[in-house]
Amino acid sequence: ARAVTVPRRDMAEPEAVCGPGPGTGDAPGPAEELVAVIGATVPTGFELTAAEEVQEKLGSASSVSRDRGKIYFEVPAQSLPQVHRLRSVDNLFVVVQEFKDYQFKENKEDALKDLEDLVKKLPWTDPLKVWELNNSLKKKKTKRKKHNLQNPASKEKLNDDGEGEGTAQKGTSKEEDCPQNAAGAEPASSQDKEKTEGVASQNGEEEEDDHEHSDAKDELQAGSGSETKAGDGKAGEGEAKVLKFRVTCNRAGDKHSFTSNEAARDFGGAVQEHFQWKADMTNFDVEVLLNIHNNEVVVGIALTEESLHRRNITHFGPTTLRSTLAYGMLRLCNPQPTDIIVDPMCGTGAIPIEGASEWPSCYHIAGDNNPQAVKRAANNISSLLKKNENKESSTSSGVPLDIVQWDICNLPLRTGSVDIIVTDMPFGKRIGSKKKNWDLYPACLMEMGRICTPGTGRAALLTQDKKCFAKALSRMGHIWRKGQTVWVNVGGLHAAVYLLRRTWERAEEKRSFW
């Protein structure tokens, strides 16, 4: 079940953004030269990590939004399959246009009228071509998966009917105060990253690079003419179907005379009039995004239906970590081939599963003291193995990962045998308690220091109980040195990822912590 929080209207939400990169209005020449400006929502605090991944895997420089949780980069449209395989991004959209200093009128009616008039002036053609291409790749993937499974009904976690996550659509001008799913245009679907939740379920990560890449090229070459149909406001060639759409508005800032619902409603009305599309909040084909952050406005078209961070987990626990955040934590530690990476409090296994998927040349060990958590993690690993078996031309179905039930304060691992420790520590909210953390944290740091290699070992630890962690770390200064601290938003909680370096000092087996 997907829940989208609807922020209070006048509170600044880190969600809506500004956009840095160049606008998208330039019309390219031949279809294969079509370039897309892509916006990606990422875990707050990990914008630079995501930008590094984009540079490394796509060769594109990213600009980080002034508002947290978004980056922008330019890629050839035929690279869309690789874009969907990025591990650090939650949701993707193609930028229609960005305004860095949009002047809103003080009067509500005038401000909303300006937004309506904006629709006719925007360069929709190329972004809609990118959306069409993205859609066609998604459909091809679905067909291939169904064929592979020899079961046309099987959905393989693909949501072709795109659930509406809680942002609304122009459409029926319901009042602004309708909380989620206000028909009038779901409000600033909250917070820092999740908003336009969605990618075509695991959209681009399950297929072979070459296969998808050639599909993208074929679509661009064959389709450049027919793919513009969405932009014409008519149904695709040969189809009498009228596209359905919704508008999702994310607004941040306290100087606007209108609410996010009102903006989405009126902007959506203009979109409907311009394209002659049909408004539908739940079974929509196109999701138009209107991001407003103070005086910065970005208009985009969503390329994802379900957030990419849902890629690995099928069995959820009370505090399941997002895969994108797990990737960011692992990347901070810079894993090297043959490194032994341990998550001593693995919960549902999000961190080790992400690690084994992205760093298969390392050995990953996951453990937890809760038998139920170990069972969930084992089921998630099993699901990953099945997914690998269903991949085309899969060479091996194994993953370098083991799951163990153990006591975090008495790990069955040799002293100095572990290179990297990455874990999500109990916040003391849904699991454990703040009081217990005062004993648990120093004991954990001591035991993790014992198993970690002196001098070269490192750890990335996530916690919201920052006061307790700081106190415990101050007592463990002989074993751990604090490096970077990344501030993140985890389910609305202000948390931190601490990157620690293991000192050369030998860890004592027993020590009085306080």
TrEMBL record:
The keyword Methyltransferase applies. Residues 187-303 form the THUMP domain. It is found in: Cytoplasm. Coiled coil: none annotated. Its main location: cytoplasm. SMART domains: THUMP. Gene3D superfamilies: 3.30.2130.30, Vaccinia Virus protein VP39 (3.40.50.150). Residues 1-29, 139-237 are annotated as: Disordered. InterPro entries: RlmKL-like_Mtase, RlmKL-like_Mtase_CS, SAM-dependent_MTases_sf, THUMP_dom. PROSITE patterns: THUMP, UPF0020. One of its GO terms (cellular component) is tRNA methyltransferase complex. Pfam families: THUMP, UPF0020. One of its GO terms (biological process) is tRNA methylation. Residues 211-220 have a biased composition (Basic and acidic residues). GO terms for molecular function: RNA binding; tRNA (guanine) methyltransferase activity. Residues 139-148 have a biased composition (Basic residues). Keywords: Cytoplasm, Methyltransferase, RNA-binding, Transferase, tRNA processing. Belongs to the methyltransferase superfamily. PANTHER family: THUMP DOMAIN-CONTAINING (PTHR14911), TRNA (GUANINE(6)-N2)-METHYLTRANSFERASE THUMP3 (PTHR14911:SF13). This is THUM3 protein. It comes from Pterocles burchelli. The gene is Thumpd3_0.
